Amino acid sequence: MATPQKPSQIARTLLGKAFPPSSADKIFTEKVLHRPLSLHPTNEASPLTTPDARTLRQQSRQRRTLLRASKNKRKTPKPKPLSAKEIRTLGVYKMPAQARKYAIYEPLHQMWIGYMQELIAGQVPVTPAVVAKFVSAEFVGAQLEVVRCRCVSRVGIKGIVLKDSKFVFDIITRSDEIKHVPKEHAVFRFEIPPPERPGEGTAQARKLVFELHGSQFEHRSTDRANKKFKQHNLDDL
């Protein structure tokens, strides 16, 4: 007497319609029988999908852990800048002896002249708007000369600027000496040849001469770009 098929073996009936009996039995035994079938209820309001209090606590702890980890990742400390002592110890700004040659920086000066001529853009005589551009310009490569200073021994120093820090110009002279000239209480002079125009000889072109008051120029080049300068009384030198 044949035993009736259980309702759970409806897959055997469906396989018997598509395959021969021997193949259907083999497929059912090897691939269907005793295999778990995961079913997900479609009703979201079902009690099976509603988490219990324990699950809610676990989910809350996981969310807090992830939020804390993301905050710690954003608060990763940035590397601290080097102190003045560390800079001196490491010799960050120390220039090797073979690089202390005036001739090495003459091409840099010529590049600086072209850079300043682009700022002038042929506006001769120079307008106040062009002078305002000079304030935020880069002076590394400029040829500066100290024309007035409270320290008389610094008057006459002339050379190409190698470094423009907040309070000091580092200048290399034609005698291959590096001078550290403070900006305070000093007036610097620099010249810019005007751009050559067709039909004018070099003899007719007069250099544009400017004076820079160092006491009003005590800012880093990066800070001068967005700074608005105001007129101040000039100190007696």
Question: Care to give the gist of this entry?
Answer:
The chain has 237 residues and is an alpha+beta fold. It contains seven helices and six strands, in the order H-H-H-H-H-H-E-E-E-E-E-E-H. The chain starts with 9 loop residues before the first helix and ends in a 13-residue tail after the last helix.
Strand order of the largest sheet: 4-3-2-1-5-6
Count of runs of 4 or more consecutive helical residues: 7
Largest sheet: 6 strands, antiparallel
Average residue-wise pLDDT: 80
- Radius of gyration equals 41 Å
Beta-strand content estimate = 15-25%
Which descriptor suits the 3D outline?
elongated
Helical content band: 25-40%
Ranges with pLDDT <50 over ≥5 residues? Answer: 4-8
The total of beta strands comes to: 6
Sequence of secondary-structure elements: HHHHHHEEEEEEH
Query: Structural class given helices, strands, pairing?
Result: alpha+beta
| Distance separating the two termini | 125 Å
Any overview of this molecule?
- There is one protein chain.
- With 237 residues, this protein is α+β, with helices and mostly antiparallel strands.
- 32% of the residues lie in helices and 16% in strands.
- It is built from seven helices and six strands.
- The protein has helices at 10-18, 21-32, 53-74, 84-90, 106-120, 128-135, 221-224, and strands at 143-149, 158-164, 168-172, 178-182, 186-192, 208-213.
- The chain has a six-stranded antiparallel β-sheet with strand order 4-3-2-1-5-6, covered by helices on one side.
- Strand 3 (168-172) and strand 4 form a beta hairpin.
- Helix 1 packs across helix 2 (21-32).
- The chain is elongated.
- It starts with 9 loop residues before the first helix and ends in a 13-residue tail after the last helix.
